[in-house]
Amino acid sequence: MSQDTVKRDRPWLMRTYSGHSSAKASNELYRMNLSKGQTGLSVAFDLPTQTGYDSDHPLARGEVGKVGVPIGHIGDMEALFHDIPLDQMNTSMTINATAPWLLALYVAVAERQGVDTSKLQGTTQNDVLKEYLSRGTYIFPPGPSVRLTTDLIAYTVENIPSWNPTNVCSYHLQEAGATPTQELAYALSTAIAILDAVRDSGQIPAERFAAVVGRISFFVNAGIRFVEETCKLRAFGAMWNQLAEQRYGVSDEKQRRFRYGVQVNSLGLTESQPENNVQRIVLEMLAVTLSKNARARAIQLPAWNEALGLPRPWDQQWALRMQQVLALETDLLEYGDLFDGSPVIEAKVRELVAGAEAEMARIEEQGGMVQAIESGYVKRELVKSHTRRMRDIESGDLSIVGVNCYRETAESPLTAGTDSGIMKVDVQAERDQIAALQAFRAGRDAAVVAAALEELRAAAVSGANIMPSSIACARAGVTTGEWSEVLREVFGEYRAPTGIDIAMAGQSGSDAMDEVRAKVRQTSQELGRPLRLLIGKPGLDGHSNGAEQIAVKGRDAGFEIVYEGIRLTPSHIARAAQEEGVHLIGLSVLSGSHLELVEDIQAELAKIGASELPLIIGGIIPEDDARQLQAHGVQAVFTPKDVDMNAIMATIVNIIRRDNGLQELA
Amino acid sequence: MPDPSGLAAAVRRRERPALARALNLLDDRRSESRQLAAELLRLLEADMADEHGHLIGMTGPPGAGKSSLTAALISVWRKRGLRVGVLAVDPSSPVSGGALLGDRLRMKTSSDDDGVFIRSLACRGEFGGLSAEVWPMSLVMLAAFDVVMIETVGVGQREIDVARMCDTTCFVAQPGSGDSIQFLKAGILEVPHVLVVNKEDMGAVARRTLSELGTALGRAHTDGNWEVPVLAASATAGSGIEALADALSAHEKVLRDSKCLLQRRRQYRAQWLLKRLQEEFGSHGIGRLGGEQRVLERLATATLSLFEQHQALREHLLGAADKTHS
């Protein structure tokens, strides 16, 4: 049969999560990606933009333009979409705590482009609840955060009807260790919390509420167990349909459809033999495309070398081509659902639904998702699951090719180039961005800015919808830091539970663990007091899995662990280490700012007379950087390759021994 | 090894590195360190005339919000120009002996403030929640800070030990949990000098707990000359914190005015030292010293510093043990 006569389904939206250095550089990247056949944009913002700081704020140092594009004001947003007409684009923005602000900037730029803003299409992630559990770019306490989420939803449903105002994320839950059951339960419980809040806010008349439910979309993860993942997505569809109908009385079947976008799993991507990640990514893509009735609306794939550092344009192109081959070359889109009626699939779906419903009932009993997050329950459950996963990898119960089995490899030509197979952000980019920001500030009408901020403050205090005053701020030239600062003053800042206060059964028993414990005990005795470690996450990066796992493991090995969660300044870490009398500082940095942050922390330690404290670091750290860090006195550098946690603990013990003039233990 | 007199002088000058080193030294169980630690404490004790600072114990069930309340109090005290030291106690794992010390997280204040110093401690299975090192550490803290707060793991029968080392004990109640009433029945609530119901922003539930405690406890403390106030506060909303700080300092003033402070501290020290002796030598050893009462009297009336007394008693017992073994 020729292709002309077969009716093929329309392919999903193809995106690449990208953005770096500056609005101008990112704009060039976007236009290049679109010319290669990408059909939508997925904007990655840098951490200062995500956490509401201007590029020249002390906490932003080293982070500007690193994991995404810095957007400080309307000028940056305009440059980001230069020559990209917004009425013809579908833009997904991974933005949460500052989502109302970035949408306000987007609307203001559309106005400047002369586009009818009611026609805008795209997505704001706008799911702060999962930020408390994973990723960590929250700012405000849960109450005000839910209110901002609600305001954005209410605004777009009435004014930008094709916008997806929130992407409830199970993606990051899986990255934090969630099992498929937990993913289902926590994502749907989050959706309930948000929808209930919109309903209770009274901003939408009851007869229009079905439209709100119809606009809720999801952002899902797909791991390597692709059969189970397919079942998970079918379970999502069934549960959402039922929830929309029964809890919210949505009668139109179309408005009950589970609409989702996907980024496939990054957690399972390995640093060792990174070329194997290509087949992992392809298999994971199958999980979200094979079943027509549970197929993704939009897909973005990670690059094969994500665990090594920032992907280059060629790496991103490769990821896009994977999608194109599946959609255009294969016959997948010619068929109806391949799994309907399969007893194996249906049984697995039923099992997942039952498990998820039981967990949702536990959340409901606690008063809902917000309460279960505030009490630390959800985070603890996730840390438990992740700890189990790490233990299984360590024991070999969970096979990861190239990591805990089949480790021998020939030298890879892929990582042999002069750039070691990754991209480096030009350090000059941060300085340029700061200079441009300061010039922009100087050129504004200060009175107009002040008046707009006062209007914003009044709305924040009174409970009026935050969007109109935010859009007015965008037009007036308010900066990201200024917008956030006003809301920080009104709402306060929040520190989420770390979830590491878990008790894991069966921690002893393994010989390797007993051996480490003996070493910790012996060294504690020789040094006269328990070994103490400070685990610190400096900077704005909120990916705390690594730090949490080390903290839990350290406790189980017999260390006393001081862990204060994410987003600490170098001075805070240095002073805490001194006050707590720790033997060693362990840092975790995944944003790529390790060089700057280590330099700053060493300077702070010197300032308070504590330079003698040994420092180790873990994170996504390219080899060149690792060598540089070690040359500057960092005692050990751990990367995702290092999965043997007992070995990490033993190394820590020996560093402490060396530092205190004791013989190292074999 | 640090030099005790240099260290004591630096602690008195509130030098942060010295404070950290002094606390590390008190944590150190090696015998040569124990000697130095005793010397450090003797020097600090001699110099302070025993009356500097206000030592407050904060106790209450887990989840009542002790750390958040401590954080809120810290900012009130800082506004009043007081320097604050905190000893925060967390539980240890009974299996590995390791611990996660997370209280700082909830006490996050300006990290550049030299007027605040927080040291976390694992309870290490001793004293039903209070590590043996807590009390000597509080002495070092008192030498450098105006207010020193000991925050406990939770509350239980044995945890009222915190009351046996602090000038003022504050109990934090959790609204709506039956705990407070249980503690009341168990007599634990006779110990604290100030009661506070946290999370008053929870509304009706908080008001009910407040009135339950208020009616049960609106009476004089066994200490005499002190009416136990029952307060409401909210660490998150920032309400009632000033009043709580006022109540705590009112109690301190009563102690000072009635000249009880010194006597009380010496008594507590004697009890603590007795406990250490009991731990080391068992009740048998105490018996050889003439029994608890005799030891307490001897410690309380000693002209030597308490630490020298302690050393003398230890040596006495160790000497006796050596003789029986030889």
Give me a quick take on this structure.
The complex is a heterodimer of chains A (666) and B (326). Chain A has 666 residues and is of the alpha/beta class. Chain A has helices spanning 23-35, 47-51, 74-80, 99-113, 142-159, 171-175, 180-201, 209-215, 226-246, 276-287, 313-329, 343-365, 369-374, 377-395, 428-442, 446-462, 466-476, 480-491, 511-527, 545-557, 570-580, 594-607, 623-631, 645-659, and strands spanning 13-15, 17-18, 41-44, 90-94, 121-124, 163-164, 167-169, 217-220, 260-263, 298-300, 532-536, 560-563, 584-589, 615-619, 636-638.
Plain-language structure description:
The complex is a heterodimer of chains A (666) and B (326). Chain A has 666 residues and is an alpha/beta fold. In chain A, 49% of the residues lie in helices and 9% in strands. In chain A, strand 8, helix 9 (226-246) and strand 9 form a beta-alpha-beta unit. The longest helix of chain A has 23 residues, at 343-365. Chain B is α/β, with parallel strands linked by helices and 326 residues long. Chain B has twelve helices and eight strands. The model of chain B has no long low-confidence stretch (mean pLDDT 82). Chains A and B meet through helix 19, helix 20, strand 12 and helix 21 of A and helix 2, strand 3, helix 5 and strand 4 of B.
What is the topological layout?
The complex is a heterodimer of chains A (about 675) and B (about 325).
Chain A: E1 13-15, E2 17-18, H1 23-35, E3 41-44, H2 47-51, H3 74-80, E4 90-94, H4 99-113, E5 121-124, H5 142-159, E6 163-164, E7 167-169, H6 171-175, H7 180-201, H8 209-215, E8 217-220, H9 226-246, E9 260-263, H10 276-287, E10 298-300, H11 313-329, H12 343-365, H13 369-374, H14 377-395, H15 428-442, H16 446-462, H17 466-476, H18 480-491, H19 511-527, E11 532-536, H20 545-557, E12 560-563, H21 570-580, E13 584-589, H22 594-607, E14 615-619, H23 623-631, E15 636-638, H24 645-659
Parallel strand pairs in A: 1-10, 2-3, 3-4, 4-5, 5-6, 7-8, 8-9, 9-10, 11-12, 11-13, 13-14, 14-15
Helix pairs in contact in A: 1-3, 4-17, 5-7, 7-9, 7-12, 9-10, 9-12, 14-20, 16-17, 16-18, 19-24, 21-22
Chain B: H1 4-12, H2 16-27, H3 31-48, E1 54-59, H4 66-79, E2 84-90, E3 99-101, H5 103-106, E4 116-122, H6 134-144, E5 147-151, E6 168-173, H7 179-185, E7 194-197, H8 204-217, E8 230-232, H9 241-257, H10 261-288, H11 292-301, H12 306-325
Parallel strand pairs in B: 1-5, 1-6, 2-4, 2-5, 6-7, 7-8
